[in-house]
Amino acid sequence: MKKNDFVIGKPIPQPDKNADKDLLKVLFFCILFAIPLLIYVAMRVNFTNSEIRISELIRKKEELKRQKEVLLIERERLLNLSNAEKIAVEKLGMIKENPSELNVNFSKEIVKKDILTERENDRSN
Questions:
Q1: CA distances to 13, 102, 103, 110, 124 from 113, in Å
Q2: C-beta of residue 85 within 8 angstroms of C-beta of residue 96
Q3: Are the C-beta atoms of 78 and 85 separated by less than 8 Å?
Q4: At a CB cut-off of 8 Å and minimum separation 6, what does 95 contact?
Q5: What is the DSSP string of 72-87?
Q6: Along the chain (125 residues), what's the average pLDDT of each consecutive run of 10 residues?
Q7: Which residue from 125, 105, 124, 103 is spatially nearest to 113, judged by alpha carbons?
Q8: pTM of the model as a whole
């Protein structure tokens, strides 16, 4: 049988006129379902990223708390008077003297002489 042959008594097939409408209906329902799904996925991704960021910030906060504790202990150690004296003697080469042995002399002549010397040094620089 060829394409152009017709069978007697059998109707000629016609294109479905409702096929376009059915296709549009299916497409509409797919879009109607896809939009909320896409919105849900976008919100879920955003929520997951926020959770990750929050956990990173909490971890950083805990690390900063530990560093603060270490620094406070170090500060207390450095502010300890005996430790300050030890640093002054060992690292800075200072000498511990008895306050009663200190001799301080502020006569007018010595002060004037020191002031004049400083002025001359300032002028020369």
A1: 126, 22, 19, 5, 17
A2: yes
A3: no
A4: 89
A5: HHHHHHHH-HHHHHHH
A6: 63 74 89 94 97 97 97 87 80 75 70 83 78
A7: 105
A8: 0.45
